[in-house]
Amino acid sequence: MKVSVSIGKESYQTTITAGKHTTIVDEPKEVGGTDLGPTPDQLLLSSLGACKAITGRMYADRKEWKLDKIIINLQVDKEHLKKEKETNITCEVTLIGDLQPEHRERLLSVIDRCPIHRILTGPVKIESRLST
Q1: How many CB atoms are closer than 10 A to CB 8?
Q2: Contact by Cβ (8 Å): 76, 41
Q3: Sign of torsion, CA 63 68 69 70?
Q4: What is the pLDDT of residue 80?
């Protein structure tokens, strides 16, 4: 899996290419961007939320549970981040459908084990090097 990210001189407007898909990431105007796309931290939360939602949908479909919709609202506590060495992300999960209480609890448990959640909560090593 490869993703390519590039930025020119357009005040923080960044282009992400992933396979045949292109996305613009930017910063708000108040910090010098052009606000043409989500910020990097919004994109990170979007990735986590999308992965959780897809994982929940796949599981419910496999179990043939009557799940109509999953809504996940995510937020990073930036004040906590300034004071502590850990990042605090809150994910509020709403499950809409005719589900038994035990199905709701099981879905939340499965959703919390999606691949992106596991990446973000596990040991992560990021290596940056100059290309030749």
Answers
A1: 8
A2: yes
A3: negative
A4: 66
How many residues appear in the chain? 132
| Rounded-to-integer distance, Cα 89 and Cα 119, Å | 14
- DSSP conformation class of 76: E
Closest CA to 89 of 58, 46, 119, 45: 45
Those residues of the chain that have pLDDT short of 50 are none
pLDDT in tens, 107-125: 999 999 999 999 999 999 9
Please report, in angstroms and rounded to a whole number, the separation of the first and last CA atoms in the chain: 20
What is the DSSP code string of 20-61? TEEEEE---GGGT----S--HHHHHHHHHHHHHHHHHHHHHH
For the entire predicted model, the pTM comes to 0.90
Residues forming beta bridges with residue 90, ordered by sequence position: 75
Query: Hunting for tokens 């990210």 — which residue is that?
Result: 5
Q: How far is CA 71 from CA 13, 68, 85, 90, 94, in A?
A: 29, 10, 29, 13, 5
